[in-house]
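Notes, p. 3: input format for complexes.
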Amino acid sequence: MAPISRGFHGRRREADPDRVPPGQYVVDDFPVLSAGPTQRTPTDSWTFAIGGAAESGAAWSWEELNALPQETFTTDIHCVTKWSKLGTTWTGVSVDTLLEDVVTEAEFVTAWSDGDYTTNLTLEDVTDGKAWVVHTFEGEPLEPEHGGPARLLVPHLYFWKSAKWVRGLTLTLDDEPGFWEAAGYHNHGDPFKEQRYWSD
Ligand SMILES: Nc1nc2c(c(=O)[nH]1)N[C@H]1C(S)=C(S)[C@@H](COP(=O)(O)O)O[C@H]1N2
Ligand SMILES: [Mo]
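Output follows (200 residues plus MTE):
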């Protein structure tokens, strides 16, 4: 009998190092990783808010978010548990669009979600076309298990930075570690630099 790992390894593709970061393997399925129960917030009571250290914040209902300019884009995603998924297509609103009328001196944001998940990012890592609030995956409404009705997507960082069930961004003057960052994950999380844990 073949060892159980053979079939698994057999499905691994030759990794293109420009696309697949060190230590990652490519999957075809879409694993679900959640630290707690799947959140199911109905869109009629859903809002997205930007607040914190800003002169004026901003907020959108579900309809208002969907009335903003939408972007559809294809990108690769990388989970710190070592799977990468290539060529995923998403639709949503760029964080640049959401921050357009926000005046702030903050250099950091904490994304927060239903279910109390948080993750911290620099403003630089979520602006200039690097982050979106997405509601559609491969042309279909994003499933609750994957963060629907909407999740943050920051594909150039490990996937824990892409907060599922996201409800807002809090601007902060100081960098404040989020859920996984406070539990020992790297503060920045660049997969191409293998920034997995705080000591990396
Ligand atoms: N709200 C929330 N967002 C979250 C998480 C979570 O537990 N709660 N897990 C993170 C982690 S560690 C990963 S790898 C991805 C998993 O997303 P997926 O379940 O769509 O694959 O979501 C991230 N966003
Ligand atoms: Mo993860």
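The two ends are 39 Å apart (CA to CA).
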